[in-house]
Amino acid sequence: MNFKKLYQNTTEKLKLEFLNGIINENRDLQTAFVNFVNSVKNQKAEITYQRFKEIVAETLKYYKARLEEVDLENPDWDNYHPSYEGYIEEWEQYQEASEQEFSQIFDEFKTVAVDTIIQQKPEELVAMLAGLYKAALVADVPDPVCSFEEVNEYLLEEHNRIMNEITKKVLLSAVSDSAIITTCKLFFDYAQKEYPGDEHFVTYFENFLLAVSNKSNQPGKILSVIDQSKTNRESLPRLVLLLHEKGGNAKEWLQSARQYYRLDNNVAIQLLAHYYNNDNPEFLKLANELFEKEPGYWAKQLREYVTAELDTALFVNVFYSLVVDEKSMKDYHILRPHLPEEKHEQLLKGINHDKPFKVQVLAAEQRYEEIKQIVELHPDDWHFPELITPILEVYPEFCFNQISRKARRTIETERGRSVYQRVVKWLQLADAIPGYKPQNRLLARELYNHKPNLPALRDELKKGGLV
Q1: SS (H, E, C) 212-233
Q2: Which of 12, 152, 399, 403 is the most buried (most CB within 10 A)?
Q3: 17: in domain
Q4: Within 10 Å of residue 370's Cβ, how many Cβ atoms?
Q5: 183 shares its domain with 330
Q6: pTM score above 0.85
């Protein structure tokens, strides 16, 4: 039984016993409880629209200035920490150092935002997020060294990162219904007054609004707030679906899902699940429509739904796409019994560019002669071990000759420890060829005694257990 069902079926007495048991041991929960109670008691002390705008403006002013302090031409080298050891290109150092300075500023905002969540002030939080959003858009940060394709685009990405992290914190917090309604009202009023006709602004904040609204017991009020602000419901399809679901409005939920599924893949996924559980013909109709529109994406979503019994043609198309796009042998074995020979040959041609995967498919079909031809035609392929491994026991003499020629040729034409490590791997493969281990050890000894002496090769042969 999942948490939601268990919680709904648990008595209030048992819930209180659990609450009393943990709240006395957890200082953070105690603080959250005090703030929650105070926020409910002070329901009438809502912040005004004017104060909301002031918080936006204050946040914009402060963080715009902070972002503009970052000098991309002279980043803070004293606090720069390379992301990995070894040589780093100069341009990459400049970019990393600047990114770290920006991240520090956004993380500073996150710290303040989390305090606002603890204080049960979602209205102020959304105003702060709107101010930071504006700061990311308008900050004037010259980039003479071209560290970024577009500085403000990068700042928006950072804003989105921080907002998603803050949203997770909101999901874990307790928020009073009155604060939620006020938050939505102020946000949508602001959106329509400051960004009239700009649906992108409200869409950008949809994840945050989902987290806040999910805690409300008055979904109908939030829908009224959206409509009164003249915000187009189509710009918030997932939020509208959530509110209908929380309100128990199954008819409106389905109507909205049908209206919006082409606008948002998440809505389409919800509608697919609904039809799968309630209406198979509609499920198949929708699944075929979506798959035809974007096969690569929808194949992954449909993997858990479609079966050969439900719709053979759709099943074959979905798993064919998964095999080709994801190089998945697991999906290949599921698909194979339902794959006509003509389609199978088409699949093999479709994966010609990926020889290691094609060899896996051919090996599953025991088409070893074709694998042998691939090895023969591509002796210098980087994936040589993967190509030859399936036929080591089928064509032992051929495989040993291929490996020995490749090893000798490589030693004569290339130098370096990484080269010798590859040679050792080939010889270790040859050790597994039935009946050829003695000859392989003679080959290893021959390479070990190569003239001129190759100390690194000798070292690798010893490490590999070949001499």
Answers
A1: HHCCCCCHHHHHHHHHHCCCCH
A2: 403
A3: no
A4: 15
A5: no
A6: no
Q: With cut-offs at 50, 70 and 90, classify the pLDDT of residue 44.
A: very low
160 within domain boundaries: yes
How far the first Cα of the chain sits from its last, in Å, is: 60
Residue 42 reports pLDDT greater than 70: no
CA dihedral 440, 443, 444, 445 (to 10 degrees): 120
Residues 452 and 326 in one domain: no
CA atoms of 353 and 337, how far apart (whole Å): 24
Element (H, E) at 142: none
Tens-digit pLDDT profile for residues 385-437: 999 999 999 999 999 999 999 999 999 888 989 999 999 999 999 998 999 88
286 and 323 in a single domain? The answer is yes
Count of the separate structural domains present in the chain: 3
**Do residues 33 and 23 lie in contact, with contact meaning Cβ atoms separated by under 8 Å?**
yes
Q: At what angle do helices 295-302 and 312-326 cross, to 10 degrees?
A: 110
Q: Inform me whether the pLDDT recorded for 76 exceeds 50.
A: yes
Examine the pLDDT at 186 and tell me if it is beyond 80. Answer: yes
